[in-house]
Design brief:
With 377 residues, the protein is α/β, with parallel strands linked by helices. It has 15 helices and 11 strands. The chain has a 6-stranded parallel beta sheet. Strands 1-2-3 form a 3-stranded antiparallel beta sheet, with no helix packed on it. A two-stranded parallel ribbon has the order 4-5.
């Protein structure tokens, strides 16, 4: 950051048992240092018990300090090391991933217009160069400043010129019914670049409740941010006026999307006198045409395709988070197929890669999806 914006530098530090994220001197987030081990709070051996059999690969793993006794190594060693990231992706059967920043997830918390704009530019330039070494396996999302509409459109155009295949917007804003979003959504649609939303990225209170039940409440309600954004973009007409634009929600689950589509149709008809603007398509059709959600362990979400279409669903591993599917993604996919016997292989090909290839056209994923599909045939 330039000297006159140093007070907006995002940085992390360890303080005893905690990791603290700051913007300048302001504390933005404070979590336990072992936060990412919270899934079991136990050993890798107990975590690996969910597998059907011991994995021999752990015994011959070339990584240093691998888990002994031939248990599955569940550590996500590729969080910041590309070589180890590719090794983990291969091990988990993953060809490509949409990736988001770590400290950069705090970019929306920079409340200064210039500070947020410049910080986004710096991150986007770095992320593009960093991900080049992945040869297309890592698809970075450009972080778009959202304080000012002109700044947002300018960064969309600048990062599109670099070659980005995704734009990341902020959550927690109640202005997605504003017509000033139209040029941004129109540009994204014309250039086949989806607008993506990552849970907790924006002016959202990720710790809305404290006390009994707070963990359950705070994590579960993250899907509410997606519900609000979809309702604003559909109800306000932004998606209807820009039918080429697509939006995707990461880490919000997916099973609720069908119910939301039905509810919005009910409101559109039942409260017609107060519904403005009038839409050219029913809300459920706009959702079917333009809205997408990532699923992971919530494999029952596949049933949602019956209401909003299979094109709404994309599988994600959520690497490197502890609640993700790594390193058991293959088994999660097997369970997905077993528990959704009414779906056919074309549905699974779409969810596991085909929809991503169509959505992120600039990432050139179609060839790999076709190769995978042939292997399944």
């Amino acid at each position: 950051m330039p000297d006159h914006l140093r007070q907006f530098v995002i940085h992390g530090e360890k303080d005893g048992d905690y990791r603290i994220t700051r913007i300048g001197d302001q504390v933005i987030l404070k979590v336990k240092a072992n936060f990412h081990a919270h899934k079991t709070g136990q050993s890798d051996a107990s975590f690996s018990a969910q597998t059907d059999a011991v994995e021999d690969r752990a015994c011959t793993d070339a990584r240093e300090n691998f888990v002994s006794d031939c248990v599955v190594d569940t550590r996500r060693l590729g969080a910041r090391d590309l070589e180890l990231r590719f090794r983990d992706m291969d091990r988990d059967g993953v060809d490509a991933e949409l990736v988001f920043p770590s400290l950069g997830l705090m970019l929306p918390r920079i409340a200064d217009r210039e500070g947020q704009r410049v910080a986004c530019q710096i991150y986007n330039d770095w992320a593009w160069d960093y991900c080049k070494a992945s040869a297309g396996r890592l698809v970075p999302a450009a972080m778009i400043p959202c304080i000012d509409f002109d700044d947002a459109l300018a960064e969309c155009k600048r990062t599109a010129a670099l070659g980005y295949a995704a734009f990341c917007l902020w959550e927690g804003m109640n202005n997605y019914n504003d017509v000033r979003w139209d040029p941004i959504f129109a540009f994204a649609g014309e250039n086949d670049i989806p607008l993506v939303f990552h849970t907790g990225v924006g002016d959202v209170n990720i710790r809305a409740l404290k006390g009994p039940g707070s963990g359950m409440f705070n994590y579960t309600r993250q899907m509410n941010d997606a519900v609000d954004i979809i309702t604003l973009l559909v109800g306000g007409g932004v998606l209807d006026r820009n039918p080429k634009a697509h939006i995707l929600f990461a880490e919000h689950s997916a099973g609720w999307l069908w119910g939301l589509a039905e509810r919005m149709d009910e409101i559109y008809h039942g409260h017609a006198p107060v519904i403005h603007p009038k839409l050219s398509r029913l809300p459920s059709q706009i959702i079917r045409d333009q809205v997408h959600c990532a699923l992971q362990n919530d494999v029952g979400s596949v049933a949602t395709r019956r209401g909003v279409g299979v094109g709404a669903l994309l599988f994600a591993t959520d690497y490197p988070h502890s609640e993700g599917t790594f390193p058991f993604s293959q088994k999660v996919v097997d369970r997905m197929m077993q528990e959704n016997a009414d779906a056919d292989m074309s549905d699974f090909v779409a969810i596991l890669g085909g929809n991503a290839a169509r959505l992120f056209k600039r990432a050139n994923l179609a060839g790999k999806v076709e190769e995978r599909a042939r292997a399944l045939a």
